[in-house]
Design goal:
The protein is an alpha/beta fold and about 250 residues long. The chain has one domain: TIM Barrel. About 45% of the residues lie in helices and about 20% in strands. An 8-stranded mixed barrel has the order 1-2-4-5-6-7-8-9, surrounded by 4 helices. Strand 2 and strand 3 form a beta hairpin. The longest helix is centred in the first third of the chain and has 21 residues. It binds guanosine-5'-monophosphate (2 copies), manganese (II) ion and sodium ion. The site of sodium ion (NA) has 5 residues, from strand 6. This is Bifunctional diguanylate cyclase/phosphodiesterase.
Length: about 250
């Protein structure tokens, strides 16, 4: 209960802020964009990762408010970064199912994008497989409205849920993010290699971009390059960093 009050205050006092994990084109080894990952700068407990507060935020619906905070901060960050580079950068933002149920979603996203001159084509909203499984008709309608704004949609944590190939066709996805569990042993376990190969091939067949999550070492990277997985992120490249550090990655400053 204290924690709930604490989180409400955190939203008011601007204690929530996204960190940014860089994403790379694996063939060219070029920075292509970032995933925004929320952190809580707690006044006494230090920097808290999402696992410490996202469940509570979902249960209390505070995740809707937090979602707009993260979306706005990510758009602001992207606007700043685009002033320092000619290449167009992607910004991926995680969305909880509750956010998709918010009546004002489309209006609010539109007004935030207007405020920061965001090119909607540079944004991706990540939803998990569980979202896809529940509330199919309404979810599909909302995702189509998001697509109509020009924003792309990524299916997060792919392989951990129960989505079928028919869902992948039916929903307006642009990208699938291969869950870290398949990447972890993809340099040493033949079954995992075959699964990743299968997912990359399926993505290509369906016209979707494949993103590997949690690339930790060079062997995993080499395997993913060999399998033509187009994009990736992970500690090998960088952990999630502050907006300031993300900016330095873009400008090439040390
Ligand atoms: O940064 P970290 O690996 O601890 O993030 C763990 C998970 O927390 C992410 O995979 C994502 O599912 C969730 N998460 C991170 N940031 C956000 C956010 O801004 N909104 C929502 N809904 N989930 C987030
Ligand atoms: O959205 P999602 O739940 O997939 O968020 C990705 C999370 O995974 C982030 O919280 C990030 O901190 C974490 N992460 C990113 N890259 C790596 C990695 O290479 N190894 C591990 N163990 N975790 C990672
Ligand atoms: Mn994600
Ligand atoms: Na994920």
């Amino acid at each position: 209960l204290n924690m709930e009050r604490d989180l409400r205050r955190a939203i008011q006092c601007d204690e929530l802020e996204p960190y940014f994990q860089p994403q790379y084109d694996l063939a060219k080894m070029e920075l292509i964009g970032f995933e925004a990952l929320v952190r809580w700068k707690h006044p006494t407990r230090g920097l808290l990762p999402p696992v410490e507060f996202i469940d509570l935020a979902e249960k209390t619906h505070m995740i809707v408010e937090i979602g707009y905070v993260v979306f706005e901060r990510a758009c602001a960050q992207l606007e700043q970064m685009q002033q320092h580079t000619k290449s167009s950068l992607a910004m991926s933002i995680n969305m909880s199912p509750r956010q998709l149920e918010d009546e004002d979603l489309i209006e609010k996203l539109t007004s935030i994008m207007d405020r920061y001159n965001t090119n909607p084509g540079n944004l991706l909203l990540e939803i998990t497989e569980n979202v896809v499984m529940s509330k199919t008709a309404k979810t599909l309608e909302v995702l189509n409205s998001i697509k109509a704004l020009g924003i792309q949609i990524a299916l997060d944590d792919f392989g951990t849920g129960y989505s079928s190939i028919s869902y992948l066709q039916e929903f307006p996805f642009d990208q699938i993010k291969i869950d870290r569990q398949f990447i972890v042993n993809s340099h040493q376990n033949e079954t995992d290699v075959r699964l990743v190969k299968l997912i990359v091939g399926m993505a290509e067949t369906l016209g979707l971009e494949a993103v590997a999550e949690g690339i930790d070492n060079i062997e995993q990277l080499s395997k993913l390059q060999e399998l033509d997985c187009s994009l990736g992120q992970g500690y090998l490249f960088s952990k999630p960093v502050t907006g300031w550090e993300a900016m330095k990655l873009v400008t090439g400053e040390k």
